[in-house]
Amino acid sequence: MMKDLPLSKVYQLLEPGPVVLLTTARNGRANIMTMSWHMMVEFEPPLVACVVSSADYSYAALRTTKECVIAIPSLALAPKVVKVGNCSGRHLDKFKRFRLTPAPAERVAAPLVAECFANLECKVADTQLVNKYNLFILEVLKAWIDPAQKNPKTIHHRGYGRFAVDGEMIKLKSRMR
Amino acid sequence: MMKDLPLSKVYQLLEPGPVVLLTTARNGRANIMTMSWHMMVEFEPPLVACVVSSADYSYAALRTTKECVIAIPSLALAPKVVKVGNCSGRHLDKFKRFRLTPAPAERVAAPLVAECFANLECKVADTQLVNKYNLFILEVLKAWIDPAQKNPKTIHHRGYGRFAVDGEMIKLKSRMR
């Protein structure tokens, strides 16, 4: 189902700023949250910075296990993505509630999200700015892409549930990677 | 021309992941670069993390002056945005070369970009991760919006000069800010 994606291409997924899901697993219990505050930090091995609020239930799992999966949903999943963001996993199995399918990852205990077109298995690489800003540096260990989802459109949060959906693609002559 | 934007709304501009321009000024000389690696870190006062490579000419100016402007271009500027990213300001006045108009900022020496629909005056708030990751934490001191540019479409880099342009806007019932 899911195919290997070379780590050198991971930045092409996250650099455009899509809303993503972040999964964790702690004491055998998986959880999932919605996240928009992330950016690339290094091409390869891919490093990603993200902010996970200490008010989020996922925060303790991420700090303790130092592992997560970043899963990238396409437009079709937008209603579920918002619902996942609207509630806490503290007293709720969000995978079950929103009918999302956890799938085993290869390098981490946190699950992939089978419905997402890309999944990035990550370990926490740096916690220097966690106490001050809730800012984690992640290293992507393994990346998966679902070849069955062709040209997925991602969504970009504009505040209060408004999202811009990917529109036309343009190509300009660039020397930038 | 440019109107005040409340600082509480800045995240709505950067969270969706647009390609931006970053200006600096050092010893009376302004420069401009293209940047996609940025994210929100805090709502208000707005904190923004960004990666400016030590290979970029802007890096030394940002480190030394601890000031910059993040300017957000719309689709119409895309060809110039790519050209700005394709060359270095080391031996070139990129504002002149690409006919972009520097305008005085209020709180920093770095210029606004008059053609951009939003401009964010920033100071460097934290340099802890600069040596290791070229990662700066910026605080937005003042934000400007150009009311003449209605519903600007931003661009999102997908690697090698391919960009997704903002498409349709959707609204979902969200408790997320």
Outline:
Two copies of one chain form a homodimer. By secondary structure, chain A is α+β, with helices and mostly antiparallel strands. Helix content of chain A is 16%, strand content 39%.
Task: Tell me about this structure.
- 2 copies of one chain form a homodimer.
- Chain A contains 5 helices and 12 strands.
- The two termini of chain A are 29 Å apart.
- Chain A has helices at residues 11-14, 58-65, 78-86, 94-97, 130-133; strands spanning 3-4, 20-26, 29-35, 38-42, 47-51, 67-72, 102-103, 112-113, 118-126, 135-145, 155-157, 162-171.
- With 177 residues, the first copy, chain A, is α+β, with helices and mostly antiparallel strands.
- Helix content of chain A is 16%, strand content 39%.
- The first copy, chain A, is globular.
